[in-house]
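Re-run with default settings, no changes from the original entry. Doing this only to confirm the output is reproducible before filing.
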Amino acid sequence: MKKIFLLLFVLTIGFTGIIGSSVRAEEIYSIKEQFPDQNLRTEICLVLNKTETDIIKASEAGEIRSLILNDKGIKSVKGLEIFTYLSLLDLSGNEIQEIPKEIGKLQSLRILIINDNQINELGSGIIALTKLEVLAANGNRITKIPDDIEKFDTLEQLQLQGNLITSLPKEISGLKALELLILEENLIEVLPKEIGELNNLTILDMAKNRLVSIPWEVGNLEKVYFLDFSSNRIHNMDTHLFNKLQGIKAVYFFNQFYSENIDNSGIVFQDMKIKGLDIYTLDLGFNINQVLVKPDGTEVKLENFIHGDSVTIPANYLAFSGDYILRTTISGGSKNSFGNQEITPSIYEQKFKINDAKKLPENNINIYLYGAILVFCIGLVLLVSSRIFKNKGGF
């Protein structure tokens, strides 16, 4: 009998220990201590319907699947790592300067939106989120894409528009699932040839960078249908690379800025077919240089005076009488292609003449003005005098 009681006692103690350990495993967090940032703390209280003096149980945090915290004045996101089952996190439009490494604990996160903050780098916390499908970090101060970006093998969208990025690492080729790559408005000078290994890419936006050439490997992007390389410095590219792009629909290369005149910079807004494939838009630029040749042979480059199909020449550029020439150079044309130096750009010259203009000497302008005032006064006196004499019976 004693053995039975002893066994029951042991079982009771063991069962009590199991229950106690499970209770202890239920972590609790003080809201006030967990979230140092006041604005973040306020928003978390609203989401959980709690006050700042309350606590959060781990089971409660685990029920949260999405947090939309945009435009809340948040400066620190410390504490969010307790929401371990979070799938969507939107922190756009805040004042965040750094994403802490603790964010890397959110291994269920699929979508991270941190647009329009003050973030300087994609730190270890973000890189640890290896199951991300969408990473949007537009409008920050990011200067570099880290080499370990290749860890994002499930990433489908990478948006880094409006940052300070100067280069792309060759490891970007590891983003095998990537479909959309937006790098518009950065400082990128070279596009690595490894870009051609992004086999699932459909949209590539490199507008408003500092690219001077396009690698041949871009032609390996078999699924891409939209390319934008407008507003760069491109003057070295083989257009035959488009022959390999089976699904291409739009290619933009307009508005290239050069420090020197480059021949054959592009095709001007022309619909065309490449290898029998319909391309709705192949815009390789509308690059115009206009020079005013004065009667003495000197040349003045006209900048920012083109308005649609007309050009406005300031009057001070036409100060001398004689024959003028407006020379317009259009780089590109329906038969031109990049890299072919044998085909020259189109040059148009318009001649016009400025005759001698009769105008008042600048030094005598005041004299003529005073004379006009004097004549006006005399006329006014005569008019008043005539009315007076008429009323008195005179005249």
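The mean pLDDT is 77. The first helix runs from residue 2 to 25.
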